[in-house]
Automatic annotation (TrEMBL), chain A:
Pfam families, sorted: ANTAR (PF03861), GAF_2 (PF13185)
All copies of domain ANTAR, residue ranges: 173-234
Name listed for the protein in its UniProt record: GAF and ANTAR domain-containing protein
Cited Gene3D superfamilies: 3.30.450.40, Winged helix-like DNA-binding domain superfamily/Winged helix DNA-binding domain
Any one GO molecular function term: RNA binding
Keyword Metal-binding: no
Organism encoding this protein: Streptomyces coryli
PROSITE patterns: ANTAR (PS50921)
Keywords: Kinase, Transcription, Transcription regulation, Transferase
Coiled coil: none
Amino acid sequence: MTTPGHHRLAAAFVDLTGGSNAPAGGSPFDVTALLRKLANHSAGLLGASAAYVLLAEAHGGSAVVPADPGTRLDGLAYELAGPARTCCDTGIPVPALALSSSAVQSRWPRFAAWAQGRGYAQVAVVPLRAHTETVGALALLAAPHRPLPDAELPVGQSLADVTALMIVRERERAESRALTDQLQHALTSRVAIEQAKGMLAVQHTLTPDEAFALLRGHARSRGRLLADVAHEVIDGNADLA
Amino acid sequence: MTQADRSTDAVLSAMRRASDARRRALQDLKAAARNEALADGPGGELRASAAAMLRRSAARHAAAAHLQEAHARRLATWMGRPGDRPRFMSGVADLFGTRSATLTVVGSDLDQLASAASDSTAKAAQELEFALGSGPAADATSGGLLVQGTGAELERRWPGYGAGLAELGVGTVVAVPLLSTTQCLGALTVFDPQPYGDRPRPVSYDEMAAVLTRMLLGPDAEPELHLGMDLQEVVHQATGMVSVQCGCGVDDALSLIKARAFALGETTTAVAAQIVHEGLRIGLGDAE
């Protein structure tokens, strides 16, 4: 089965995963731009009047990214107690619900009033899931004349999950970079400290242990890091006499 | 803390790391199954590729757990008995059907920062490569690719190194880079691995390198404690001493120590120990 919808869906996946314009390691990862793409594609494919994404606390929390600057999502701070926040916390999707329904009115009264005040009639939310965690939530809002197609919500879920995978993968890359730097920095510092001990031992006729005590005492009394002082000793810029 | 306390701690720590790794493997397997269940739907290809990635990740956690458990068992068996304390790397060597394997970690300039060896042969081979400044681990690290050589090929490729290995009774070397997602951390080198012929190896070199990389970069990594890594403190202390005595930089000082070791057929560590503990002074004349 090939329909124009399928082509649009394929194009959305290509766009979200970077497609042929994927940065070749050079340009920084822009999570806001990615989430805006997700909101735009989901709203377009599912016929929603508006869409926005909320990130889970672990991923920066309150970043709400509306699909288009033109849509009526001003004052969205109400979402902090709305269905997307609930979905972020629980990882459970919210099916298409009428804003006037008792389910919405009782759970998110302020959100319901806010959305109805802007002319929306329905809300649905899908989580951005990756591996075992919920990275965020994608909320879709519908106008009264164009209800959200419940059967199509899995499409939104797939787009949301692909986005979540992109976010998690980028985070893993950044973590790996940080851990590598940390390991190398720790080992390089140790090497510098041992070299400085040797230098001080000769300069002051000390044993390596005494040289270490001198180095540590100097660093402590000045509130400096041992490795920084060691590098100064090696560069000939420290006076530990 | 007594020796027995320290050994008990080491056993418990290895067991804790093993159980952490098993838990992570299980998490990844569950997540892989979830992705596989959805692989027929929209975005199926990405789901399938995510599932495959998670299964690889789970296998690495499981392999790390297996290594830690084996290490814990060897430590527990050794406790209270004579003989050298079991080294973590001997478990890695075991998986390749040999006794000798080394792990080296380099800095961003590819200078060696730390190493771990499974036995005296591996340690001697590692010392040789460190003194010469060239060898399979250095090539695997700088090239980011698996490097291997056998017999006379070793001496042709790395003059001095091949002859030294032959003296140690080693005929074949395989070195594989430790690649993180962003750079190369060092190398795993295996000496005289058992030939498997057409049979599949229990673990591939690339897989073992990936497992060790993950262990080095783990959230609670303590390479000295759980991988038995040696920072060669005495070599760096001697380097500092020689740099003052000769009025040269630390890089030149290290080269002087290595040159003396090579000229006398000693290890860099042995010469460094003489400088630090016995007052040996080496001069610029030694380099010639």
